[in-house]
Every structure is written in C-alpha cells, then in structure tokens.
Amino acid sequence: MNHMPENTQIREVTDRDMARITEIYAHYVRTSVITFEYDPPSVEEMSLRRTRIQEKGLPYLVAEVDGDIAGFAYAAPFRARYAYRFSVEDTVYLDPAQTGRGLGKQLLSALIDTCTEKGYRQMIGIVAGRENLASINLHKSLGFEFKGTAEAVGYKFDRWIDTLHLQRPLGPGDQSPPH
C-alpha cells in the first residue's frame, strides 16, 4: 500500500536544493537506463540546466519530506521549434528510498496543474526502458495514453533501450485555438 509521508511539501526549487537533486539524479545515471547519460553531471551543470528551464517560465519542483529533498520534477519544452510552444515534456526523479509512497504522483500532478495554469496544451512523457513499469504506471494513472515506442534508440550498459512515448492533454488540449 502506498503511504504518502505526512510532512511532505511540493514547492519550487531553490539554489540550496541543487546538491541533493544532483545526488538523486547521479544515482540513476550510474545504476539505470532511465536516463541515457553516462556520467553524472556536476551540481554546477544541474544548476545551469535548472536555470534554462526556469528562464523559459517552466516549473521546476521538489518534494520535500521532513526537510529533505525526496524527489524533483520539471517540465521542459518538448521541441525547440515555435510550433511546439504549447507542448512540454515532463521529468520526474525520486530518491530510491522514497519510491512507492505516492511522491511521484504528487510531483507529476503538481507539474500538470502548473503547466495547465500556464496555458500549455500537451504533456509528453518519454519513458526509457520497457521494464520501467513504475514510470509507465505513474503516467497512466494521471491520464497519459501510450502513443508509441521508439525502438533501440539508446545504448547503455551493453544493451539497446527503447523509449515509450505517453501523452496527455492539458486544459482544453486541442479543442480550441491557443490564445
């Protein structure tokens, strides 16, 4: 049974969160195929990436449990070209000790709400690895639909990795022209 920690707060990231975010992300870089990076980035690099997200007016959130960063999530532009300006791609990472407790759902829900409020119309989740059922199920639980698989697009740990593409509308989705 999922049990959300009682003292959980979802909030915007701050500079002081970046060392812990970098530590969480580095774990997945070193141990999994859910990110295609091979070498964990530095705190400075992760901070630069965060700045690029925030400069675009996109949300970068953290889940804080009992004063410790337990996970993070952000939305990034889906693609660079202007016609894609209403679509975002989500990213969610949790401290491995915090998985299965509902934090991912809380973070992604907050990300969906914030992006909807900002006028975005589509959110895309790119899930690396067919075996990444936690991420696939998280997305599906929040209304994402499976849209397709890009086969063998990544190579890490001596194997080919597929990516699964999931998508959900935000707000009115494609039902009305954007403002």
Give short descriptive properties of this protein:
179 residues; Aminopeptidase; 7-stranded mixed beta sheet; 4 helices; 7 strands; 33% strand
Structural notes for this entry:
With 179 residues, the chain is an alpha+beta fold. It has one domain: Aminopeptidase (3-Layer(aba) Sandwich), CATH 3.40.630. It has four helices and seven strands. A hairpin with a 2-residue loop joins strand 2 and strand 3. The protein is globular and about 40 Å long. The chain starts with 7 loop residues before the first strand and ends in a 10-residue tail after the last strand.
Brief overview:
With 179 residues, the chain is of the alpha+beta class. The chain is built from four helices and seven strands; from the N terminus they run βααβββαβαββ.
Q: What fraction of the residues are assigned to beta strands by DSSP?
A: 25-35%
Full CATH superfamily name? Gcn5-related N-acetyltransferase (GNAT)
- Give the structural class: alpha+beta
Number of strands: 7
Tally of individual domains? 1
CATH architectural group: 3-Layer(aba) Sandwich
* C-alpha end-to-end distance: 43 Å
CATH class: Alpha Beta
What's the alpha carbon Rg, rounded to whole Å?
16 Å
Task: Report the major sheet.
Answer: 7 strands, mixed
Strand order of the largest sheet: 1-2-3-4-5-7-6
**Low-pLDDT stretches:** none
- State the shape: globular
